[in-house]
């Protein structure tokens, strides 16, 4: 069966093959790409829309056919590192062969927006939020743990498996109600909303990433530091 696909990661395998993680309509799948150093190998690169046919019934399949399905998206600089970050999130969080067609579509649109030079932070926050929601880890941004409307003048902290909990005193890691309401509406003009969204997504993603840091995030920070120097 042929499926739309993107390459998430590829590494050499045996003498001339590659072990490739694909994001498809059937979910994240892994396949052996034979003759990876030839023409077909040049097609199997990240951020390129592909048509993929896999063979085999086990977890590790064989690539039967791989063809280009559109113009490869050119990502450079911070957009490139952002694309690598998206790929790493999908590899780390998506269960194998768990279909998420809506997420696949959103991924393709996000790549197009990155290639077009759109602002990075809103795109990354929207992708993180959509991924959490797709995996069943989403939570309300406009209501607290007691299903009460978020008060724009109040303070809240995020708690895993519970959601947003009202707090009385200012403490590290808390969020202002007006920031949360702005996030719910994707209103990034509200002062502090975008920075708060980044903190909230890091808190919400951390339990599902385990203790291992994201390589792409560390590379991104290194790039930013080198630019400042």
UniProtKB/TrEMBL annotation:
Entry-linked Gene3D superfamilies: Nucleic acid-binding proteins (2.40.50.140), Recombination protein O, C-terminal domain (1.20.1440.120)
Organism annotation: Ectopseudomonas composti
Residues covered by the DNA replication/recombination mediator RecO N-terminal domain: 2-67
Pfam family name, one: RecO_N
UniProt gene name: recO
Lipid metabolism as UniProt keyword: no
Protein name: DNA repair protein RecO
Keyword terms of this UniProt record: DNA damage, DNA recombination, DNA repair
Family the UniProt entry places it in: Belongs to the RecO family.
Signal peptide: none
SUPFAM superfamilies (UniProt xref): ArfGap/RecO-like zinc finger (SSF57863), Nucleic acid-binding proteins (SSF50249)
Cited function: Involved in DNA repair and RecF pathway recombination.
